[in-house]
Sequence to fold (159 residues):
Amino acid sequence: MPATSAETIRDRLEDTFWERHANPWSAGTRFLGFPALIVALYRRDRRLLAATLVFLAVNPVLFPRPARTDNRLSRYVLAEREWLNHGNETMSFDYPNVLNVLNVPMTLYAVGSALRRDPVGSVLGTLGVMGLKLWWVEAIVRRTGVTGEAPSEEITTES
Fold:
């Protein structure tokens, strides 16, 4: 059965989203959005908070499609796309998804620390969130075998 025009449009929009988000500037600046969010909460800066939230919302399509994707940040995005395309989840109690599950209380800790204006907790929580996220994307890059040149044929979900 041929694809409907709505499915085709959705597929094209999704492709555009992932292709543009694979720009290393998109991936890198989005990663830095969490520390900006924590700073905005810590300082009670509504303008910075609003600007950060808007930036995080438009970031994946803000930058153009990259000329090359054989860099670490692009591989993170491409691996996440391939991971999801193969029906894998991002939140579960098996490795590597357990890292995202662990990131929930770490995020709450970072946000709570920022709201309490606890500088040590804010920094440690932010580093924990960023560390767990990097650990997860590194793990799925290894699992998917994404090189930035072409997706791999097979993804293993077992450790």
Remarks:
- The two ends are 38 Å apart (CA to CA).
- Residues 150-156 have pLDDT under 50 and may be disordered.
